[in-house]
Sequence to fold (441 residues):
Amino acid sequence: MSTRTSPAGATAGSPIDAVRWPDVATVPACSAVRAAVARRIVRHAFHRLPLRVRMGQDPVLGTGGPELRVDDPASFERRIATGGLIGFGESYMAGEWDSGDLVGVMTVLARHVSTLVPPPLQRLRRLWAVAQPAAHRNTPDGARANVHHHYDLSNELFAEFLDETMTYSSAVFGRLPADPAQLVPAQHHKIDRLLDLAGVGPGTRLLEIGTGWGELAIRAARRGARVRSLTLSDEQRELARLRIEESGFADRADVQLCDYREARGSYDAIVSVEMIEAVGAEFWPVYFTALDRLLAPGGRVALQAITLPHDRMLATRDTHTWIQKYIFPGGMIPSVRAMDEITRSHTRLRIARRDAFGPHYAETLRLWRERFAEGDARVDGLGFDTTFRRMWTLYLAYSEAGFAAGYLDVEQILFTEAGSTEADRFPARAAGRTDEGGGSR
Fold:
């Protein structure tokens, strides 16, 4: 397969590496009938959306709003005809469409996602939607491969857009909109709220599932907890261990390469930040059963999780998406209802408290996206080509738009044993303290 030059947009004049990006470098073939149906659906959808859509030299579509410019309508429509939303993303990666307000465009699409395709065709979704690849199942071996795909890209790449805490999850700001100077204290506030929710203090035996780059483990150790943190990422483990050692807490916090299914021991508290999304719906019962098994009597589990409305989760759980293909293979965002039903069916755990703060994730992602754009030349110097940078830009914008539109949410959720007391759930409150966390809006 040969490379080709992108027809327009930010990648103009830049060849697409067909070995690395085979489905981006080549526009897929499709029948004339399928292409015509896709063209009709796309243009019908754009005609009634609050956008200004320029399809080549054709009249502008939409009712007014952010501009979406399609420079190669034929390729754009063929990709959507064969790949749906995966094709939409690949078309952006190829430079066939662009926007001066990418987040604005994606926010409009997120708000109207359930009505973009006519209802009769939605009922035929299973006939054309791409199924999840078997290779992306989160078996122990599959989970390691999926984690490697994303988190082992390069610590230097993540450092280009994350703040100095290297925290890769939603912050909780004191006020919105946020400015860059707020990001570090807002990340610390997020971590402290979760540790408070889990009742972490001096002597707590704490298990963290999903280390990231070690900031939560450091803050928990600073409280006097004994921390065991699990990761499947070699790159993250190396840097997290270094950061913990440099912080002076190597005697209190240990980072291990270990799948949650293989964890052993008994812990007073378990915390996990935006890791359940990588478990996969098939393994959610296994995940919560492991939490139940590892939690000591009277213990607390505090999760930070991205969530979807239950109906949207059910509609998408069996299909392959652009995010899964290029960013998070094997990923699946749960609904709160799904977590509640699974824990009630398989464990002693019950949801005791929930705090949602989706708008804060939109702001977090905006700050990351702006930092990533500012570091474009440095990212290029790390060996990430133009196609990758467009992919990553779309990923950040796509995610930001999901939270801005309310299509996605993020919550800190406390799980306790069924029948636990108020004092068990909120030890800080029982002791007369009021710093255990609270509503974040």
